[in-house]
Amino acid sequence: GESVGLHLPTLSVQEGDNSIINCAYSNSASDYFIWYKQESGKGPQFIIDIRSNMDKRQGQRVTVLLNKTVKHLSLQIAATQPGDSAVYFCAENGGRIGADGLTFGKGTHLIIQP
Amino acid sequence: DSGVTQTPKHLITATGQRVTLRCSPRSGDLSVYWYQQSLDQGLQFLIQYYNGEERAKGNILERFSAQQFPDLHSELNLSSLELGDSALYFCASTPQSGLSGNTIYFGEGSWLTVV
Asked: Of A34, A11, A110, A2, which is closest to residue B101 (Cα–Cα)?
């Protein structure tokens, strides 16, 4: 079936460096994508979203890039801080309006080295 | 703090037992979603309620059921529990029945351990 996956289960970066977390999706009907951050013992926290009519969207220290041609999504975090250590999930909507259609990736564990 | 409240935070119970997880959505949100998160399956959608009515069903077992009350809080009932039901159960809410530009906000989760 359709699935969302992450290329790397663990990513280790130096504090202050930029980090890039990648996500491949396979459902060509998906037109809405979300990145979530999940810290240990907490629920997923919304970071940023993007619709398929855009290829880039920026937030505070984060940028999401969408390449629909190759069905690839990435999350860039600038100047990483210790508080950025968490598991990051991408999610796609499968072309559906409701959140019931969201498919989540397994997650990438981002580790910030001091 | 997302504004979504879940209780209990941790629960340990024996196989065959029944538990109820409770969720209070963000103030004003009409739609509640339940998700299960386990190490091998990731985050899986279980069921959605909107303003008291079931709106969508995902990979929810027949042993599980949910409801949303007039005050919009929701309960997830898990019965005949098995070891494999051990997981984190998240509740999430949105103002509307769909995303429509509104993201879903997750609670802190209820960690269920079946022994």
From this structure: A34
If one counts every other C-beta atom within 10 angstroms of the C-beta of residue A4, the result is 24
**B67 CB-near residues (< 8 Å, 6+ apart):** B49, B74, B75, B77
CB contacts, 8 Å: B98 with chain A = 96-99
Between A98, A102, A105, which is nearest B55 by CB? Answer: A98
CB-based contact B102:B46 (threshold 8 Å): no
Closest C-alpha among A97, A31, A98, A27 to residue A66: A31
Residues 6 or more apart whose CB falls under 8 angstroms from that of A42 comprise: B108, B109
pLDDT in tens, B61-104: 999 999 999 999 999 999 999 999 999 999 999 887 666 555 78
